[in-house]
Amino acid sequence: MRARVLVRPKSGILDPQGKAVERALPALGFDGVANVHVGRLIELDVDDPTDLEAMCEKLLANPLIEEYEIQTEPAAE
Amino acid sequence: MKVGVVRFPGSCDEVDALLAAERVGDAVLLWHGDRDLQDVDAVVIPGGFSYGDYLRAGAIARFSPVMESVAAFARAGGPVLGICNGFQVLCEAGLLPGALLPNVGLRFVCRQVECEVVNAATPFTRACAEGERLSIPVKHTTGRYHPPAGLDPAQVVLRYAPGHNPNGSEQDIAGVVNPAGNVFGLMPHPEHASDPLSGSTDGLKVFASMREHVETAALVA
What we know:
The structure holds two protein chains of two kinds.
Chain A: E1 2-9, H1 16-27, E2 40-45, H2 52-60, E3 66-73
Antiparallel strand pairs in A: 1-2, 1-3
Chain B: E1 2-7, H1 14-22, E2 26-31, E3 42-45, H2 65-75, E4 80-83, H3 85-92, E5 99-101, E6 109-117, E7 133-140, E8 144-146, E9 156-160, E10 173-177, E11 183-186, H4 204-220
Parallel strand pairs in B: 1-2, 1-3, 3-4, 4-11
Antiparallel strand pairs in B: 5-8, 6-7, 6-9, 9-10, 10-11
């Protein structure tokens, strides 16, 4: 199964990257942008998607400072 | 005292750490792939970019064979000092509380900072006086310390002096110990402040403290 794990800074954790992007967009004329957060995307094929949460807790994310979101779809043939 | 300095692929400060340790005792390099700690009395996890800092700084190094032995050594009460990337590794390994985040200014910072010893009753600061200021360099991009909720204030060992916080660390925290007090991590580099040529020898006090601790423990035993 194809899985995507989205990792982003936990709410309440200062995200200077998000802030920098948020300030940069209006400079290009894109107004009305707020709450920008920069995280990372991890894509992987897994045999057992029930392992994904443990993978996130133990390695893919640091639960103290990051939150994660798991998305799954059938692997492409 | 015999100090073991771990070398990971991507470490870059292990030689300075070795030289600093040799000023107060004997020191050997420990390879990341070896489980044998060679009967050392203390372990240093040095600065650098272990395993390329892939995923998160320190996240992969904790799985190396040597870290299994270091974790067992720490659980048995052995003194472990993590400097910069070593601090990140020890946090990721769960041997120290909290985590290190990208600097608030998003830039690599390399400069001399003043740190205040707020707990001089640890194996790493016993040669210092409480409130003493140490002049030690920092050089990092990911040094903003985030403590866990409810961190015991006694675990905070070093704080950046007012106006010297280089990275936005919460509560100006520069270095913390585990609850047992035998594992210490800090972002400043005491090994880079151990020779008069580098402008300050304040960092040597951290290594001298470790020697005092090891020698006192040997007397008691």
